[in-house]
Structures are given as structure tokens and as C-alpha cells.
Amino acid sequence: MxxxxxxxxxxxxxxxxxxxxxxxDNLTVxxxxxxxxxxxxxxxxxxxxxxxxxxxxxxxGLIATRRGEGTFIQEYTSHRLVEIxxxxxxxxxKSKKDLLEMRTIIELDAVRLxxxxxxPAQIEKMEKLITLSEEKLSHGQLPIEEDYLFHQTIALASxxxxxxxxxxxxxxxxxxxxxxxxxxYGRSEYSIQEHRMILNALKNRNVFEAERNMKLHLEKSEFx
Length: 224
Fold this sequence. Notes:
The protein is mainly alpha-helical. It has two domains: 4-75, Orthogonal Bundle (Arc Repressor Mutant, subunit A); 84-220, GntR ligand-binding domain-like (Four Helix Bundle (Hemerythrin (Met), subunit A)). The protein is 72% helix and 4% strand. It is built from eleven helices and two strands, in the order H-H-H-E-E-H-H-H-H-H-H-H-H. The protein has helices at 4-24, 36-43, 47-59, 81-89, 93-117, 120-138, 144-157, 161-173, 175-182, 187-203, 207-220, and strands at residues 63-66, 70-73. Strands 1-2 form a two-stranded antiparallel sheet. The radius of gyration is 21 Å and the shape is elongated.
């Protein structure tokens, strides 16, 4: 009979092995996972262990069960997974400081690369986001989503997929900090102006100005 420690270890192993099956079967977001019975057979474990592992993945929003259809893979940001993880990861001042420091490093590298690689369509998107930010602010709303998408476009314009994969969870964890920053009196107006300066530098392919303006923006936002 398995003791509690052995059961916990098996449960953790099942979680990792389910990921192996996802990779082996070339499954992606929106695809259906094998059934609970099939997973148990392929992993050579009891269905109860598989059930517990699937329950954990569903609680985190990594998968979703649809009655009569099966279990499907979801984007990792679904069902507030990032907010749940951030609550535990960012519980002390040091962790928050480390996160913001990491974000600064990534953002500066991203904007340097973007200055050389950004495409016209991305510049056009960023211009529209600035306009939407101004419209939202004029109606008394904080342009949080527009701010996020502006920085996301820069990260994508770097054309470094690994950098983007690191940028996304770091930025997502810090979105509560972003809201706090934009909520400071007058900060949103200045943030939009700083976005314009960053965008102008990117249009001119000026790496030095792009990095300098991004650094200033992060410092003013209290992200650095």
C-alpha cells in the first residue's frame, strides 16, 4: 500500500508525464486530451492518480472539461492562472523588486532589438494603441489593456521568440503593479507621452533613443 509521500510523488510524476504525452501527440491549445482511462493505460498508473493530476491542471486553468466532449488544453493565462501564481510568488517586497528589475532588463533588450526589426504593421498598431489610450483616458478610464498591448508589440517586434516567452509571464505577473502605476494622479497622461517618444525612436530606427526613452518610461512608471 502506498503511503502519503509515495502517493504525492506519483501524483507529481503523472503531471509531468501528461506533459510528455501532450508533446508526443503534438497537441496544442484547443486540442482534446486523451481520456482519463487512456491516460491511465499509457502511463501505467491508477485512474485516481490521473484524475487528481487533471483536477490540478483544471484548477490552474491549463485544461478545461466540457461535458460530453472531453478535456481540452487552454492558454496558460486562462482562468486567472497568472493572478493565482502572482499571489503566491509576489508576497514579499524582495520578490516584487526582483520581478520589476527583471522586467526592466527584458524591456530594454526588447526595444533595442525592435528598433532594428520592427515592421510597418507593428508601428501602425502601436499608433492606434496610443490613440485608443487617449480616448479611454478622456472617458475617465485607465488604458491598462492598451498599455499592455503596446509593450507586447515591442516584445514581439524583437523577433526573438525566447525573449517574448520570458517577457510574457514576467509582464503578466506585474500587471497589478501596472494598474497601480497608471492609477497615480496624472501618470497615465505622461505614460502616453512617453509611449509616443518610444514609438518615434522606433520609427526612426534609433536604437540609442529607443533604449533611452524606454528606460526613462520605466523609471517614471516606478518599474525600475
